[in-house]
Amino acid sequence: MSTPEQQPNTLNLQSLESELSLSRQEMEEFKKLPKKEQKVQKLARINNLQERLDQMIQEAIQTGNVKEAEKIKDKLTQEINDLEKLLSSVENHEDIFQEIRGRNFEHIDDLEYISDELAEFLVNNCHKGELQLGGLNSISDVVAEHLSKYKGTLWLSGLTHLSDNAARSLSRFKGDTIALNSLTSLSDVAINYLSKHKSKSWSHRLILTNLNSLSDIAAKSLSEYEGDLILSGLTSISDTVAELLAKHKKELTLDGLKTISDKTADFLSRHEGELSLRNISSLSDIAAEHLSKHKGTLYLWEIKSLSDTAVEHLSRHQGNLSLGLTKISDKMAESLSKHDGTLWLSNLYTISDKAKEYLAKHKGEVFTGYKK
User: Where are the domains of the chain?
Assistant: First the structure.
């Protein structure tokens, strides 16, 4: 049993934890455009906390309690580092705000933190047509409310978290694009809010490039979104989700899918509008037959080979068609010559003279990699 001298100073540890908690709370208020004197004071306090943490670790080691030292280090070092990082981002924020006040918007994308005041200022004064804030990994609900009033494209490509309330505010955004490229997850409530985004222009987009899963409830919400929908982060979808997304009426991008079942292809074929399946690498004859019934542009850029039967099915597709085929038989060329719409065969560099003759009969534009 440890003697009192060997036991870690629990009171000191609790005190340090309490001060760190208080520092985090103060830092949130500190974000309100602090004065230089406040910053110096806060930096001194963080340095003091770091010194006390190092001292406690050394004391724990000297008493032979290495496990306790590791516990203290693991628990508190990262919190202090986070405070230092936050302090740096706040300082950076103030410097950039000064530039923006002088109408220099060059470093907006470098912001790692944005205050309510700066968000409001940007919305009222940045008239570039787009607002790129890719350095932010989170925004407050108040900032989201300000940004929703921006009239242009809104790039929040670095956000890794978005609250339901912030999503509700962004749903009122009237610009053409909301780009949330880095979000890997969103609540069903947040997705429901975002699905209500409408632009005053003739087209609008919701970009959720890295969203890696979608519930049935979320899919139903997104199916009702009235703009283009970019969901390239989904590497697989259930048949139910496919059936729901097929009801979406604008561009639907599912470039994260590498394979699809025949049943999924059947559901997606019912989608009306541009359908992007750029990374699908293989397709069964049955799946090709299903997709041939799709109406609108169909992208299958990564499919390097298909059977004659599959190509014959796809040649009946009504709309522009992009295939990644690297070689085609004369029979395939004959089938594709009957396709109605623009035909992209950009990876096709070698082709027989007979196949060229067939493709020359195609009634629309044909883009290939070989010289005609």
Answer: 10-93, 105-368
